[in-house]
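Dear colleague,

Following up on Tuesday's group meeting, I ran the structure prediction for the two-component complex that the binding team flagged. I've pasted the input sequences exactly as they went in, so you can double-check that nothing got truncated or mislabelled along the way. The structure tokens for the whole assembly follow below. Feel free to forward this to whoever is handling the docking comparison.

Inputs:
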Amino acid sequence: MRSFKAGDAFLNTFLYAGLALFGAMTLYPFLNLFAISFNDPLDTLKGGIYLLPRVWSMDNYGIIFSNDRLLGAFTLSIVRTVTGTALGILCTAMFAYALSLREFVFRNLFNGVLVLTLYVNGGLIPTYLLIKNIHLMNNFLVYLLPLLVNAFFIIIMRSYFESLPSGLTESAKMDGAGHFQTLFRILLPISLPVVATITLFVAVMHWNSWFDNYLYASRANHLSLLQYELMKILMSAMNQSAGSQAHVGESTVSVVTPQAIRAAMTIVVTVPILVVYPFLQKYFIQGMTVGAIKE
Amino acid sequence: MRLKKGLAGIVLLSLIGFAAAGCAGNKGNEGEASSSSSQSPTQSQESGSASSEAPTEKTIYTMGVEESKLIWGGSITKKLTEKTGVELKYDAVLGDLFQKWDIWLAASDYPDIIRLDNEHLQKYIDAGAVIPLDELIDQYGPNIKAKWGDSLNLLKHDDGHIYSLYSVNATKEAPANAKAGFVVQYDVLKEAGFPTIKTLDQLYDVVKAYAAKHPKIDGKDTIAFGAAMNSWTINVFFNNAGISAAGRPDHGNFVVEDSGDVHWNPVSNYTKDYYKFMNKLFNENLLDKEAFSMGEQELKAKMAQGRVLAAYAPSWFSNPPEASLRAAELLDRQYAHIPVYFNESVSDHSNAMTIANGGTHEWAITANAKNPEKIIKFFDYLFSDEGQILTQWGIEGVHYELKDGKRTQTAEWVKQKLADPDAIFKEGFRSEYTGQVTNWFSIGDGAKLADGDFATPITQESVRSEYDEKTLEVLDKYGISTWADLLPPVEKVPAYLWQLPPPSDSKFKVVDQKLDDLRRKTTSQIIMAKDDAEFEKLFAAFVASAKDIGLDMYEESFTKIWKDYLAEYNATLSK
């Protein structure tokens, strides 16, 4: 390693300090929520919770996890995220591959239609009617099918495929590989960076999604997702604190503070999806360096 | 090799995915199948003669609700099914209710019974999605008619039909858990020897004396008088407070004269007098220094810390901080809820109530409902005295018992309620809101049924049983049994001005925004005036600039709205 000059050292200190400060700024709100989520809800009302809880309490989590539907909803959310992401990537890759082939006849037509959907959509009520008429209401498939392909992701992946040297697919073809083999054995393995990126997008989208639950599956309790169940808890906490109208008005137990519940909930929904990041991080770096062909 | 494994993994995953999706999909279909089979009794009933059906035959109706904790299956809801043969299957909407109502309407996908606000109800009426109820009520609704009495016409829409039902207010006195708007800490009253406080001057004297003696509470600066101004809180602490001190009903930012003329309250004499009071507090350093920048959370936090001696804080605002104080065992820092006026001669008309609670929570029957007679009979049962007792008091021997001929909640039930805040949902004491603090078309806390006993469990005894010992002691010193004793009797108003839709033209909106900006900008300056002369000058300047913006036209448009409403209201009532 080369020796540092004084100027470099100064610049580095400055940069690292700046970055550390920026990191702290983005981390702080999260730490604050973490502290509030573990603080006694009635004590939280007094304000002044910063980095650490003042009065340790598991009450907030107790309220959330006392909901017996939550475990089922949590499992279903994971099933949805995993299957939805796997299927989504599969379909996106196949669609993108077809579009990247020069010999594909309807290439321009499909590209045009795809781009069109980026600008125009059916609108809420027509979409609702569509889903209703193809009998996807209150059906698990309503979580998966509409999100299978996404124009934006397909375009990203298509561009990536197109940027790869054409000799790659040609040589595969010469060696007798069919389209599926070319896609799965040759293209996808060297496209891991883009696959990882899209996986992340799709997974987060599936995990955070609650609107389709609200819209299409609100009448089927067994199809409730985690986000939807948590939303229920939050809403009723807010209703209760707004009115304090219960017959139990004066007692301390009935007071639920939405602020504390919201903090605990944020932690509950953030942690599982956060787990995905480190696994994908690897591919962001590795993917770029995979040598594929020598010309 | 590793890549190959990875690929195999992906394929495997997607296979599992398909399998899981298939299974779950089947489950969904099963769910649909079972729900459609559960509706078949309805159909079979329809084919049979409707009149001879036994009430025990169960029909399941879907109902669109906002509260997701509602469940059918508690002892009370079971009893309702037993009595009326109706079971509700709740379809809870989370998130944007209005959007969902619109989608349901567009797709004709609405549940059998639906709760709407009046704006959406009109949309449903226009689309023919809800059915008129007047003939049904005529035939099957003797109790609905009895409870509504002369006011039944209020339910009628412009076309003369009734489409929705909501609760009436039969209360004549303040409910036992009602509280006045101004609050003073117990400890402040104790040091002053529990004086009678009726005027702002008296309030000023006690907090001043206490703050001088105790400059710090728990290591932090004492705040003699609290207030907040950020966002909507300006309306509560700088507007409603003055209206309350004048003993006027709460029409939002407006004062409605007996003549029907509407005035913008921030320029009224009530506001001026109240600002004068705050000006005095400010110059004596008794008003919270941060009052002009704080919001809801900050003020609640300070109250929960026990260092705000007095404030204008209606119970919906002061309840959470007081609960926090009780939890921290700072019982002395809790608040006495006292009506305080500008002077001794103010007569209090602030305890106003409308005849009924229409507007936001109206129950309607949709065109999808089969056999609507059954639903009306169910509603009618809820309006009957028997239904009121069942839904508000519960089941005799379980939730309440008769003591000296009076209904009293049983000790076990009170204990159960305290231990589990959701118990009222599990038992079935809650329904979708009907506009009343209590549910199920209740006639209101403090109202009485035909047997002369209270309609709901909010009675003096029950409210007192939930007070802590300190509160009972303070109440004793004042010779009252609940804070509600200090309130005037209920007065009926045709409506609150804030319930009526405001003018919608763009010119109005501009003036409205400008007036709000002006008020936010000048209020703090006026209250921080150094002496009376400056105060008068600033307030006069504020009124003058409001006039320049277009105050007269603004007030006129509200006066017109109010007078139009009154004319229609009186015409409907006398129809």
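Residues 242-254, 287-295 of chain A have pLDDT under 50 and may be disordered.

Cheers,
M.
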